[in-house]
Amino acid sequence: MTAPPTLTQTLADRLPRHLAIIMDGNGRWAEERGLPRVAGHRAGADAVDRITTACRELGIGYLTLYAFSEQNWARPQAEVEALMDLLREFLLSEREELVSNDIRLRAIGRVDRLPPRVRDVLDEIIEATRGNRTMTLSLALSYGGREEIADAARLLGERIARGELAAERIDEAAIESLLPSMECGAVDLLVRTGGEQRISNFMLWGAAYAELYFSAALWPDWDAVDLFEAIAAYQQRDRRFGKVRVESPLPPPLTARANGSAAPEPRALVETWPAVALGAR
Description:
By secondary structure, this protein is α/β, with parallel strands linked by helices.
């Protein structure tokens, strides 16, 4: 039987430039342990910290996490309030780590729906990390892919009504320029945890040619090894983008760090990880 590739062997080559994750399974994780659902969301927040750290150390430039969908507002009010409190707590606890590790924070979605106690903290951290360059972490909050495209269409319609834009000038580029999720470019690898196999209205435009990876593990259980397995699967895919065959180039090197030093190449980062076999638990 062929041994699974080691982390060094698997991850030294093509890394996804933009990784997006649907973090599913918090509620089931709590229920399996006889805990309230909010305990699962709290454990899920710990997984966010683990995976963000692993992505930064590997050299993945863009990470987008589906934290709260537009449809999640329909959940019981008590759970929504608990999620908002947890989101605020998470943001406050991660602020210094984001700043010190040169990670830029963004938010996509209808964030104006967030309560002021969350929005105020979110806006402050976004501003404090605006100049960070090593990695960009985007939180999808009150987000929906259909809603994002509809909002862009509405803006284009308003420009046409004001005489600023001719309808025949609308093309893919015009729409894409109004999609906040596309600021970090198209998604290379879209992961969903928790065993479900659907994309649930997430990154509908940006994930048009993304490689999909579905993990049976619940999000609170996810760790660096799960991430390595997802990337290993991604690296086995033949990405053709509708053509006969396209060789996927290495992602462009990250820009210099805020302190002026050059960001390390992915290979240099990977070689610092222990050569643990994929799949080991």
